[in-house]
Amino acid sequence: MKTLTVAAIQAQLTDDVETNILHLSDLVRQAHQQGAQVIVLPELFEGHYFCKEEREIHFQRAHPLKNHPTIAHFAALARELEVVIPVSFFEKAGTVYYNSVAMIDAGGVNLGVYRKSHIPDGPGYEEKFYFRPGNTGFRVWRTRYGKIGVGICWDQWFPEAARVMTLMGAEVLVYPTAIGSEPHDPTLDTKDPWQRVMVGHAVANVIPVVAANRVGDEGGQVFYGSSFIANPRGDLVAEADRTQEAVLVHKFDLEEIERLRAAYGFFRDRRPGLYKALLTADGVI
């Protein structure tokens, strides 16, 4: 039996990088003590979610991948604990900027970077001001414990991304996230649709899904947590609440999931030749 134990870390973050790194390191250790092998942190966890406004000063938060201090810190922690940690960071690459994840394997080696493909632009989530759409394509990494596909926040709303990563061999999908209130409409609560769309990915691809969000009020923008781990049936086998920090951990039998995926027939019965409209922007072939 090949098993994989995953964790989602839900945290309240300050706007001080060192404070957040130390706090999340403690939560990673808690997850490790509970047996976690792959530990997912929230999106852009080094500080407050700065994309709620367009201000040039926030570009100072970005750093190049090479010699990135936060990545180096979690690489050392991954090596010490022998765990896999996808590290979300604001990447400066020459004259452009990306919302990126570095996949740190259990030996502390950076297996590569995924750059967020889908970039949102709306009140409170004005990411197009900061980030160029990613140029890596979707990535799946063969880590020590299993094959992991990573999407970043807005990516999680797109079924195409989940399907591609599963086709590429992913055994689990993980989504670092920063999502909460909508400043333009206080009555709009996206928590349930946010969970449901990813649960749909789990069911349609017969694959576990892990989503790690933040909590707390960051200058009037309130992040609703609700991080979760879903099994391939779409059951929430672990779920955090809307306000408290949490360390969610669950173990999966990957061989059982592989058999279940084959039995469901979703991939057997796919008709790629009929999906040409998916390669267009407007459905016109």
Automatic annotation (TrEMBL):
<comment type="similarity">
    <text>Belongs to the carbon-nitrogen hydrolase superfamily.</text>
</comment>
<feature type="domain" description="CN hydrolase">
    <location>
        <begin position="4"/>
        <end position="254"/>
    </location>
</feature>
<dbReference type="InterPro" id="IPR036526">
    <property type="entry name" value="C-N_Hydrolase_sf"/>
</dbReference>
<dbReference type="GO" id="GO:0033388">
    <property type="term" value="P:putrescine biosynthetic process from arginine"/>
</dbReference>
<dbReference type="InterPro" id="IPR017755">
    <property type="entry name" value="N-carbamoylputrescine_amidase"/>
</dbReference>
<dbReference type="GO" id="GO:0050126">
    <property type="term" value="F:N-carbamoylputrescine amidase activity"/>
</dbReference>
<dbReference type="InterPro" id="IPR003010">
    <property type="entry name" value="C-N_Hydrolase"/>
</dbReference>
<dbReference type="Pfam" id="PF00795">
    <property type="entry name" value="CN_hydrolase"/>
</dbReference>
<dbReference type="InterPro" id="IPR050345">
    <property type="entry name" value="Aliph_Amidase/BUP"/>
</dbReference>
<keyword id="KW-0378">Hydrolase</keyword>
<protein>
    <submittedName>
        <fullName>N-carbamoylputrescine amidase</fullName>
        <ecNumber>3.5.1.53</ecNumber>
    </submittedName>
</protein>
